[in-house]
Amino acid sequence: MGGLEIREIECFLALAEELHFGRAGERLYVSGTRVSQLLSALERRIGARLVERTSRRVALTPLGERFLAELRPAYAALRETIEAARAAARGISGKLRIGFQGTSDERLLRAIAAFESAHPGVTTEVSEIPLADPFGPLRRGEVDAAVVLLPMAEPDLVLGPVFPPQRQTLAVSVRHPFAGREALTADDIAVTDAAMIAPDLPAPEYWRRAQAPTNRPGPRVRTLQEGLGLVAAQRGVMLLCRPTAEYHGRWDIAFVPVTGLPDSMLGLVTRRDHAEAPHLRAFTRTVRELTGGRVGV
After folding, report:
1. Residue 210: how many CB atoms within 10 A of its CB?
2. How far apart are CA 286 and CA 281, in angstroms?
3. Which of 4, 33, 92, 270 has its CA 20 to 30 A from that of 128?
4. Which residue range or ranges hold the HTH lysR-type domain (predicted)?
């Protein structure tokens, strides 16, 4: 691999997408002949043909297809590394305001600590986002990025890295019959007489249904503490992810694991018109690295 040029890699990637030497050359601002030369140099290094070309068509060989699949993520990672170094050289500075729902747990705190270490010129502020208003603080400019419960289907917002899924628990009063159970199923929740406490407006309806999937809607609350208070008073039950349940443990509430429901998911969300800001891109990259590259769709 001695002497490998990044231009050869860029040439192959462009040609794999365009399947046309002329168009690939236009993307790279070189001639089609130069594309052919760079490709030939890359194939000599590898020792096999990556592209089949005739007078009528251009196609990847099976080895070329495999090489492309493995090269794309490596090339993307290389570009991000270079961008991170450039940002560090420029010295990203300013303030990054991060909002969170539920609990500012170890996963988020670890990401913030890694970001602050890499970008000492940026001051971070962390604040809690009300349970019933997951997207409002972003839209009002109160925070720059928000770690919120999913799903997210807002056209003016962008979903970035997704944190690892967490098992659901059901918060019930210690006087509720479920309090003594080691685990529950989705069917148990469906047949219980207890109403399901759910977030109130202005949270979108699709988002509220995801947090309280039941045919027995109960009281609507604006904050997590309001919901826990109603649970303790036996006014209803409430679904919470495991880390939030562990953080908010209290003597008058039992948190019982639930099987058969989709896992709870947190995602990093930014405003679409601000997503490319240098400090936001750097923080998004840090979260992605710590979440294993999981990205929302």
Report:
1. 18
2. 9
3. 92
4. 4-61
Q: Which CATH number fits domain 92-165+265-290: 3.40.190.10, 3.90.1150.10, 3.30.230.10, 3.40.30.10?
A: 3.40.190.10
Domain 168-259 carries which CATH code? 3.40.190.10
pLDDT in tens, 39-67: 999 999 889 999 998 877 889 999 999 99
At 64-99, the pLDDT tens digits run 999 999 998 888 888 877 776 766 666 677 889 999
A 10 A CB-CB count for 249 gives 9
CATH architecture of 6-88: Orthogonal Bundle (1.10)
Torsion-angle region of residue 259: left (phi > 0), alpha (psi -120 to 50) or beta? beta
Within 10 A of 180 (CB to CB), how many other CB atoms are there?
10
Cα–Cα distance list, 43 to 65, 87, 168 (Å): 13, 34, 51
Query: At 111, which helix (H) or strand (E)?
Result: helix 106-118
* Cα distances (Å, whole numbers) of residue 158 to 135, 178, 258, 274, 294: 11, 38, 30, 9, 14
Query: Which residue carries 């999913």 as its tokens?
Result: 150
Contact 209, 217 (CB under 8 A): no
264: pLDDT confidence band, cut at 50, 70 and 90? Answer: very high
pTM of structure: 0.67
Asked whether the beta carbons of 113 and 96 are under 8 A apart, the reply is: no
CA pair distance 63, 241, nearest whole angstrom: 44
- Tell me the C-alpha distance between 27 and 18, whole Å: 9
Of 79, 87, 95, 76, the residue nearest 282 (C-alpha): 87
d(CA 65, CA 205): 43
